Amino acid sequence: MWPSRNASESVTCLACGKQVSRSMAREYDKHGDRWDRTDKRFEYCCKSCHDDLCHYPRDELEALLIELDAGETDRDAFLSSYLEIVEERYGTLEEEY
Ligand SMILES: [Zn+2]
What we know:
- The structure is a single chain.
- The protein is of the alpha+beta class and 97 residues long.
- It has one domain (10-96).
- The chain contains three helices and four strands.
- It has helices spanning 47-53, 58-67, 75-90, and strands at 10-12, 19-21, 26-28, 43-45.
- It has a two-stranded antiparallel sheet. A two-stranded antiparallel ribbon has the order 3-4.
- β1 and β2 (19-21) form a beta hairpin.
- It is globular and about 40 Å long.
- 12% of the residues are buried.
- Zinc ion (ZN) binds next to α1.
């Protein structure tokens, strides 16, 4: 049922731009539905960025990323508006620790 994967294929982390092998990456579907695979290309996060993302509730994160046009906007512009919005809604990251 699952297409076989080439473990040595590498993908680019959508958050930090690092190349990671696909088997080490986490699939990220900005539409929040990883099970509907028809006509889709998934984006990937490296493990550490994926772990970072999980500090926030998933539901809100999906909405946030869609709102910010993740993957469609210039990465620097995306990251700065992402940080801005996260700070606005959740407080500065430093307060988390
Ligand atoms: Zn990353």
